[in-house]
Amino acid sequence: MTKYDYLIVGTGLFGATFAYEAAKRGKRVKVIEKRDHIAGNIYTKEQDGIQVHQYGAHIFHTSDKDIWDYIQQFAEFNRYTNSPVANYKGELYNLPFNMNTFNKLWGVTTPAEAKATIDAQKKAANIGDHTPKNLEEQAISLIGTDIYTKLIKGYTEKQWGQKATDLPAFIIRRLPVRYTFDNNYFNDTYQGIPIGGYTQIVEKMLDNDLIDVETGVDFFDNKAQYIKDYPRIIFTGMIDQFFDYQLGELQYRSLRFETSEVDVDNYQGNAVINYTDAETPYTRVIEHKHFEFGKGQKDKTIVTREYPATWKRGDEPYYPINNKQNNDLYTQYRKLAESEPTVLFGGRLGMYRYYDMHQVIHAALTAVDTEFK
Ligand code: FAD
Ligand code: UDP
């Protein structure tokens, strides 16, 4: 048996939030993490005075004041506003889709002209008035065929490795469509990046005498023993792997990050540039110093290319693919989870949901409320 009340598997935002809240309530917590560092996919590391987002650009955004107040306990945030730019075969367009994008594409200068252009394209595409059945129909019904062709189709199909007609509509509804000259990628009330990076947030959450953390430890190397020894387990890895894929594999999308140091002060003039054509093998190029307004060395910058990749067992599962088939299979795994009453499944992988950071914190705090009510 063990002296701990909880075993938490994974040091991402879900596991760390749960650990912090449990320790606050006097519980003894053991945390294991299979990577050689804490913080999951929000991990950032300083290089040349620049906070490098090791697993892709992370911008915190929420409209929930409680979540915003909660995260600020662990870091001070800057005023960063995400305004990625799309590069389609050398043509640059502002994102999300807004009056700047429409003006560059069609020369229109008023919202009425932009609406008329989009409506005419929708009509010509003949997609009908029914609820969009897939991402392609959803995109065309929101912003017409030109933007779909230049800024969405190529990016989406390489990002997900599937045809846009086979992908769920909700993915594209994440992006705002605006008839104003506003390049803010998010509609949320609060937005920013922690000054000094994200890792400090998880460090502070786990900094408690009641919490012991071990990195480089994989739950599956000792699963049966952990289940026997610990009265309660919070598991934030893949739910299908937990059950040895016995009902079949859920699908995930993986990524490969290629990071390099470039000997210039300013490489691309923006933190995020999306490459929206089908041929460029990467989706985004991130220049990390712009997340902190150019802070860092003057003649050096750090750039990461993000390549989408097929997922197979053993690869990092960055995105759940929430189409109907996978969601149905996940429902079956949820039923199976009832046979493991001592285990709580949480986070992007444990709950198989395309969650952003604020949603993960919300899910963790909801789980905490239920746990300690
Ligand atoms: P994770 O961070 O994945 O943590 C799970 C942890 O569990 C990992 O550290 C993993 O190594 C560990 N683990 C798994 N299995 C085991 C095991 N068997 N044994 C031990 N440890 C295990 N969100 C935003 O809000 N804004 C953004 O701009 C944004 N950008 C993103 C960009 C990319 C490329 C990606 C992939 C995600 C982005 N997100 C963003 C989402 C954000 O990363 C997640 O919402 C959040 O990190 C999920 O936290 P988590 O704890 O659920 O999972
Ligand atoms: N998307 C696109 N073109 C872009 C940016 C996004 O078509 O330039 C689509 C794509 O399908 C993507 C989805 O919108 O998967 C959501 O984009 P977001 O930037 O929210 O993706 P994430 O940061 O989660 O990878």
Describe this structure in words.
By secondary structure, the protein is an alpha/beta fold. The protein has two domains: 6-81 and 191-251 and 320-371, Rossmann fold; 97-172, no CATH class. It has twelve helices and 16 strands. The protein has helices spanning 13-24, 65-72, 99-106, 111-125, 135-160, 170-173, 199-206, 223-229, 239-242, 324-337, 347-350, 357-371, and strands at residues 6-9, 29-33, 44-47, 50-53, 60-62, 85-88, 91-94, 190-192, 211-215, 233-235, 252-262, 272-275, 284-287, 301-310, 319-320, 343-345. A seven-stranded mixed β-sheet has the order 7-6-12-13-14-11-15. Helix 1 (13-24) packs parallel to helix 12 (357-371) and helix 4 crosses helix 5. The longest helix has 26 residues, at 135-160. The chain is globular. The model has no long low-confidence stretch (mean pLDDT 97). Residues 86, 95, 151-152, 155-156, 159, 171-172, 174-175, 274, 276 line the site of uridine-5'-diphosphate.
Summarize the structure.
The protein is an alpha/beta fold and 373 residues long. It has twelve helices and 16 strands. The strands form four sheets. Strands 7-6-12-13-14-11-15 form a seven-stranded mixed β-sheet.
- The overall pLDDT, averaged over residues, is 97
- CATH superfamily name of the largest domain? NAD(P)-binding Rossmann-like Domain
Tell me the strand percentage band.
Answer: 15-25%
Strand arrangement across the biggest beta sheet = 7-6-12-13-14-11-15
CATH class of the largest domain: Alpha Beta
Radius of gyration over all CA atoms, rounded: 22 Å
Helix count equals 12
SSE arrangement, N to C: EHEEEEHEEHHHHEHEHEHEEEEEHEHH
CATH topology of the largest domain: Rossmann fold
Give the low-confidence spans.
none
Strand tally is 16
Largest sheet: 7 strands, mixed
Outline: globular
Class computed from helices, strands and strand pairing:
alpha/beta
Bound ligand species: flavin-adenine dinucleotide, uridine-5'-diphosphate
Distance between the termini: 26 Å
Q: What CATH architecture label of the largest domain applies?
A: 3-Layer(aba) Sandwich
Overall tally of domains: 2
